[in-house]
Amino acid sequence: MIYGIGDLHFDYSKEKPMDIFGDNWIDHEGQIIENWKEKVKEDDLVLIPGDITWALKLSQAYYDLKRIHELPGKKILSKGNHDYWWESLKKMNDLGLDSIFFIQNLSYVHNNIGIGGTRGWISRDNDNFTDDDEKIFKRELLRLRMSFHSIKEKVDKKIAMIHYPPFNMNSSPNEFVDLMKELDVDICVYGHLHAEGHKYAIEGNIDGIEFHCISSDHINFEPKIILGE
């Protein structure tokens, strides 16, 4: 089984309470861990598209990553906009958390399912979009392409993990969706949206791709089944 849950926003230091987004966030870490243990088995896969921990440094993030490592299943992590702790693959892999796989210009294949991803970025039609944003946007498109091009074997399906919603402000698919179509992606999971932001969540089959918004509060802090086996 493949599950997905994004925006864990774990905080080992307890300095970043998330209940500013609503009372449903009270003890959200406990809710996530309890629901995870009830649903996920050791041979399952869990996709986590960003905003994993509030830590600013990898040495601090280790404590939250270790808690994730100790939960059932194999975990595939990609970067979110708040993951300032994210460093080189070597440094992250050297933590020795072998149930975690970090997506960074790479891919993961699970039972003939190819998984790639990147952080993404705000849409070009955002009123605050700048020239610097354009550089990041293009770089993130390139990283998504590189990730899927790293899949060298034939797979039955492809899943894209992206943190930012791959849609414009008017809800139309943006260039990330265009690239996913070019790459023959079947399923896309994304997060980033909280509280009032849920009104911008777009799900279902669009242009032949099945989209799931899996920010943790959007799915009631419970890992969502993305693909049964």
How would you describe what is shown here?
The protein is α/β, with parallel strands linked by helices. The protein has one domain (2-227): Metallo-dependent phosphatases (Purple Acid Phosphatase, chain A, domain 2). Helices cover 24% and strands 21% of the residues. The protein contains five helices and eleven strands; from the N terminus they run E-H-E-H-E-H-E-E-E-H-E-H-E-E-E-E. It has helices at residues 28-39, 58-69, 89-93, 131-149, 175-182; strands at 2-4, 45-49, 74-78, 100-102, 107-110, 113-118, 157-162, 187-190, 204-206, 209-213, 224-227. The strands form two sheets. A six-stranded mixed beta sheet has the order 5-6-7-8-10-9, with helices on one face. A five-stranded mixed beta sheet has the order 4-3-2-1-11. Helix 2 (58-69) links the parallel strand 2 (45-49) and strand 3 (74-78). The mean pLDDT is 95. This is Metallophosphoesterase. It comes from Wansuia hejianensis. Residues 2-195 form the Calcineurin-like phosphoesterase domain.
| Shape by Cα distribution | globular
Strand order, biggest sheet? Answer: 5-6-7-8-10-9
Gyration radius, to the nearest Å? 16 Å
Spans of at least 5 consecutive residues whose pLDDT stays below 50 are none
